[in-house]
Amino acid sequence: MSVPEPLVSVIIPVFNGEKHLVECLESVRRQSYRKLEIIAVNDGSTDATESILRQFERQDSRITVTHQANAGVSSARNVGLDTATGQWVMFVDADDTMCDRLLVETIVLAAEGDVDLIGFETFSDELPSIDGGDPHAVAETPAGIVARARDYSLDGATLAEMIASETLNALWDKAYRRDAIVGRHCRFRVGTRIGEDLMFNLSYVRVGTRVRSVPIVGYFYRRSNAESATSRYLAGKYEDLMDVCDYLHGWAGQFEVDQVRGAADYIRAKNVVSCIRDLHRDDCDLSHRERLATAQHYKSLVPAVRVEGVGARRRLLGEFYNLLGSRSVFQLTRLLAHAR
Asked: Is the pLDDT of residue 337 over 90?
């Protein structure tokens, strides 16, 4: 008796995504694995997004569209989770694409056995042609790709490295078991504009989580998106990031592992520096005096960190952060910002 193919739910939140939405939806529709549940959540778009979604919904019975008043990406993803019925859940942003049509088929094959989380590779440079490359090259099969997968269980040291390297930050390079999402009450915190992905992942992983890392470059992340919070000054970003850091520190407190707590402190210091650097962006409307005062305020709230067990380079950066005053950090980040 053959084993039924599992249903895979792909959740796509979208707000004013008309520029790249067609490309995104087509990349999911053309996946070689056909048993998909494509859930698009229109988060109060005011452009042509609704029209595009309705057209695709008519064309493909696998696509389900929900429309809601604008409430943010976290709310939209939660709606997607409430709708999903697949055994595995994947997330795609509306300005990105699944750039390898074998991605989901490979994920499904990799999901066989005792595994909680599947990771795969992504890139964010110029999107290549799907049909390009060496015409004489032999295409690798999903089975061949999975044969090269790496399996491991999360321990404290591994979690610390994932936090410090920020590989736990993203959703779009992972596939999740839906029953684990439900059982662990994983939700996106509505109102959090930055770091909601990390908070969701922290609620999902734990010591002993079984991970399978699959060597397929399956997802294109459009880093050049000009509206990204990482490319502009965002009022309130500091408060949002410190809220996420507080959540991270609370989560890290459950581990009697110096590396995990040290990684959480490293990320807090890194976020403070990032927010001070943002004060030098051209779209920041604060005066020079106000920018300097804001930098002093940021640093005064996090004057020092304890970066333990995270490697010599990160420990050195943490010690450097502790030695520098707010004015020095402000001047250094100004140089870094102008060197971009």
From this structure: no
Q: Is the pLDDT of residue 267 over 50?
A: yes
- What CATH number belongs to 8-220? 3.90.550.10
Averaged pLDDT, 135-145: 76
Question: Is the torsion defined by CA of 169, 170, 173, 174 positive or negative?
Answer: positive
Q: Domain ranges in the chain?
A: 8-220, 237-338
Q: Is the dihedral of CA 25, 28, 29, 35 positive or negative?
A: negative
Side chain identity, residue 207: V
How far is residue 15 CA from its own chain's centroid? 17
Distance from C-alpha of 327 to C-alpha of 338, rounded to nearest angstrom: 17
pTM of the model: 0.91
C-alpha span between 340 and 329 (Å, rounded): 17
Share of the chain above pLDDT 90, in %: 77
**Do the Cβ atoms of 265 and 305 come closer than 8 Å?**
yes
